[in-house]
Design a protein that fits this description.
Length: 198
Amino acid sequence: MELYSGYINKLIEELAALPGIGSKSAQRLAFHLINMPAEKVNRLANVIVEAKANVRYCKECYTLTDRELCPVCANEKRNHRMIMVVENSRDLAAYEKTGKYEGVYHVLHGAISPMLGIGPGDIKLKELIARLQGDVEEVIIATNSSLEGETTAMYISKLIKPSGIRVTRIASGVPVGGDLEYIDEVTLLRALEGRVEI
Ligand code: ZN
């Protein structure tokens, strides 16, 4: 027996497909949306559609931005010879929040995971290698300390090493399996300062 109307069920289904939203939360959100004034619902729907239509990858570092170059890459005061490799734009935001990192970034949009069938070709790795043709002094690998993050770090290190560019890995102290975005700024800075050559 269908408990709710087809429209409500559809809405719950779509919301439940979002990360971190279980079926209970999806139901709560669905009823909240239905009870919202129509103009608020329209505004929310438009914001989603506009964000999707206008957000793209920065042509340098591949973070999500609505300009050709993200604010970090567009900033000439940043050290463009130091590239920190992170798994996603949220990790970049976490380091930016510390306000202490002066280099630029490269966003992989994932990590190598043989288990999930994600190979080097599925993340922005060849884009990173292409950037290294320029004037680069150091690549800091700041992927997560999960199995996937470590696998990715080793892979990148082996790939870059022969070029003579300095390759470093942020220090442990970042909890194993911990997503960078959940780690406090002091820990992030300590991890950055304590980075070691690999
Ligand atoms: Zn950028």
